[in-house]
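Summarise what follows for lecture notes:
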Amino acid sequence: MQFQKLNEVCARMDHTIVHFEIPALDVEKLKTFYSELFGWKIEKSPGTMEYWLIETVPVDEKMTPLRPGVNGGMYKKERAELKSVNYISVESIDEYIRKIRNLGGRIISPKQEVPNVGWIAMALDPEGNQFAILQPMRV
């Protein structure tokens, strides 16, 4: 998975949405839809992974947004039940996994490293809404 790079993390982090993902049965169809609807730039990610980067706002050479906004990604949907996911930044993925469980949520995809980005885990809130947490790699 490729995410916008988050190279600088403040000592006090805002827990805000930093990335989103859209699963697509027909990537070309959704690429056209979102590009024509919102003017988003959607391009295939470098490498062999079937992943497309979505720019809702322009980025610099480090993939940092140049204006306020959140960029994301699109991937080929493997299962019909897959839904869009918002990624929320956290200081410590291990701490937030514990918090999610203590508050009645559930971890549905364990902590995993995304090279050059950080660590992610997928979760469900107590009502079954899916979201993900992202601990950015400190560079």
Observations:
- Strands lie at 17-24, 41-44, 51-55, 72-76, 85-89, 106-114, 118-124, 130-136.
